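My hope is that you will study the record closing this message with an eye to the fold:
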Amino acid sequence: MKTLMVTGMSGAGKSKAIEILEDAGFFCVDNVPAQLVRTFVDLCRSGESEIDRLAVVTDIRGETFSKAFQKALIAFKNDNKNVDILFLEASPATLVSRYQETRRKHPLAARAGSLSRSIALEADMLKPLREDADYIIDTTELSTADLRKEIMALLDEDKPEGPPRVNVSSFGFKYGMPIGADFVFDVRFLPNPFYKKELRGKTGNDAEVRDYVMSFDAAKDYFDKIKDLIESVLPRYADVNKEHVEIAFGCTGGRHRSVTFAYLFEAYFRGKGYPTSVSHRDITKDRKET
């Protein structure tokens, strides 16, 4: 079982690292008391455990996190070839700024007093672990995406095979905006098939509706511009290990124009070899547009 002990300076990004490791398939446990780390790891490595990859976060929050204990933890790591230490740090100025932004209390504040002295004391206390860490990441200048790249690189994790998945959806603005979409495009400026009696009961999944919507130059031009935009950014998403891109099209009720664009958009990118999916959140809703 591959085991990664995640530690380092308070405020350096351990919580973000755990989120990234969870996405990479690690079973992650945060804030494990230092004195229980070895016992916990041994338990997870027992024959009854089905855990393949484990990440454990432990840090200065435990009062028993002494230099002597750190040496014992390092010895445990050295005796087990599948146990590594990831140490996260950042510049003192950056850590001060992050604490001031979040207004959280440093775990050593009661002992050290000021924030700057707390950070200095913590750095001194963690020297044994830092010196023996397998990986050290300085998060001073790193965005979350950059941190993800760093962690994936040091773990020799391959990028997702193939291009990112293109998930396309349609929705009606009057039922609320979708949650989690990377791109939302508004098609309400286009002529509405609802006002064509012969098309009112149909949807964008019907060829007659699609033909009507796309008969307008504005629709064709808008579709081409969106298509070009998404094609230009998809390779960039692959560079940051993003495995899927959510693209949503919205009209008033989510039955005609948005469905048309979602239908055609998914078909286009599927034809380009991208893995795709399409869904229509509000296509069956019965409220009338006004």
Q: What stands out?
A: The longest helix spans residues 217-239. The mean pLDDT is 85. The chain is about 40% helix and 20% strand.
